[in-house]
Backbone:
C-alpha cells in the first residue's frame, strides 16, 4: 500500500497548479537538452528481457554486426513474447517461432548438449541469431542499412532484397522492418537523454481530470463501469486521449518506448513497479509521472485515483511513451 500525498479538495487544487508548472518547465528544458546529444552503443534495458534469457540474448545478440542484443530481443518479443512454448497456427514453434522446415536447416545446438531442440531457448535463441547473421551475409552487398536488409530478408527472402536493391516494396515487409527496428528501441538501454514525448502534457491532463475517481479492478473507464479504472486502464486511457494506443496490461505497456533513468524522468513518463527487479514480465503496477517524485495512479481496491510517491522497494523503471513505440507492440504476447 502506498501513502496518499493529497487527500482533500484544496490540496488537490494546489497539486494541479504545481504539476502544470512543473510539466511546462521541465518539458521545455528537457526538450532543449535532448536535441544535441548523440546516441551511443546498444545494451539491454533493465529487466526488458526475462532474467532466464538475458545472458543468452546479450551473448548471441553480438554474433555479427547486423544484429545487436536489443534487436534480437525485439524479434523474440514480437514472435512469442518470450514464451518458449509458443505455437502459431502456421506451425511455428518455440520462443523464436521457427517453422519445422526452417529449423531443420538452420537450427543449431546452442548449448552443446548434442541435440537441437526448437523448444529449448538455449538452442532456439542462438539459432535465431545465427539465422539472422546468415541472412545478413546473403544481402551484404545490397545498398542500404545492413540490419534493415537483413530483417527484410527474414520476412520476404534474400532474393527479394537482392532483386530490389534493398527493402522490397511489399507493405508487409516494410511494416515488419519498421516494427522490429522501432521495438528494438524499447529493449535498448539509452546512453543519452531520451527525447520528451509531444503528447505527455495531454496525457497528464487527462489523468488529472480523473483524480478522486474510485478504483475498479479491470476498469477501463467505460460508462458501464461508471468511469472507473485500474492502474493500467488509467494510463491506457490517458494516452488514448492524445491518440496513442497502449496495450491493456502494465507489463506490455513497459515496451511502448525507450526507458529513461530515474534521474532523467519527465512528466508524462510511465513508471512501473514489479515483484521481480530483473523482469518486466513481473510488473504489477503502473502510474503516470508528474514530477517531483510523484505520479498519478489508480492504486488499489478501496482507494481513489490520486497522487502517490514513486520511490519504493518495488520501483522497477520507466518508459517514455512514443507513438511509433506503441504501434510497434504486438497485439498478442
Residues:
Amino acid at each position: 500500500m502506498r501513502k496518499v500525498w493529497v487527500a482533500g479538495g484544496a490540496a488537490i487544487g494546489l497539486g494541479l497548479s504545481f504539476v502544470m508548472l512543473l510539466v511546462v518547465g521541465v518539458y521545455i528544458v528537457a526538450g532543449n537538452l535532448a536535441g544535441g546529444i548523440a546516441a551511443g552503443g546498444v545494451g539491454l534495458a533493465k529487466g526488458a528481457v526475462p532474467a532466464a534469457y538475458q545472458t543468452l540474448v546479450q551473448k548471441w545478440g553480438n554474433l555479427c554486426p547486423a544484429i545487436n542484443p536489443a534487436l534480437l530481443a525485439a524479434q523474440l518479443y514480437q514472435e512469442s513474447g518470450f514464451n518458449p512454448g509458443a505455437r502459431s497456427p502456421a506451425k511455428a514453434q518455440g520462443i523464436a517461432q521457427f517453422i519445422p522446415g526452417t529449423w531443420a536447416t538452420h537450427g543449431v545446438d546452442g548449448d552443446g548438449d548434442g541435440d537441437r531442440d526448437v523448444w529449448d531457448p538455449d538452442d532456439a535463441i542462438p539459432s535465431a541469431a545465427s539465422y539472422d547473421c546468415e541472412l545478413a551475409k546473403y544481402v551484404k552487398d545490397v545498398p542500404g542499412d545492413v540490419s534493415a536488409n537483413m530483417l527484410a530478408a527474414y520476412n520476404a527472402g534474400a532474393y527479394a532484397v537482392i532483386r530490389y536493391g534493398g527493402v522490397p516494396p511489399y507493405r508487409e515487409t516494410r511494416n515488419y522492418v519498421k516494427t522490429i527496428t522501432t521495438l528494438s528501441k524499447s529493449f535498448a538501454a539509452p546512453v543519452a537523454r531520451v527525447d520528451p514525448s509531444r503528447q505527455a502534457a495531454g496525457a497528464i491532463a487527462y489523468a488529472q481530470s480523473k483524480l478522486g475517481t474510485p478504483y475498479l479492478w479491470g476498469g477501463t473507464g467505460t460508462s458501464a463501469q461508471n468511469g472507473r479504472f485500474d492502474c493500467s486502464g488509467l494510463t491506457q486511457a490517458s494516452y488514448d486521449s492524445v491518440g496513442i494506443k497502449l496495450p491493456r496490461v502494465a507489463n506490455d505497456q513497459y515496451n511502448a518506448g525507450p526507458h529513461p533513468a530515474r534521474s532523467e524522468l519527465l512528466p508524462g513518463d510511465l513508471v512501473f513497479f514489479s515483484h521481480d527487479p530483473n523482469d518486466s514480465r513481473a510488473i504489477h503496477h503502473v502510474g503516470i509521472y508528474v514530477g517531483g517524485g510523484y505520479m498519478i495512479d489508480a492504486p488499489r481496491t478501496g482507494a481513489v485515483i490520486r497522487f502517490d510517491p514513486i520511490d519504493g522497494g518495488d520501483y522497477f523503471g520507466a518508459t517514455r511513451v512514443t507513438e511509433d513505440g506503441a504501434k510497434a507492440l504486438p497485439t498478442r504476447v
About this structure: The first helix runs from residue 9 to 34.
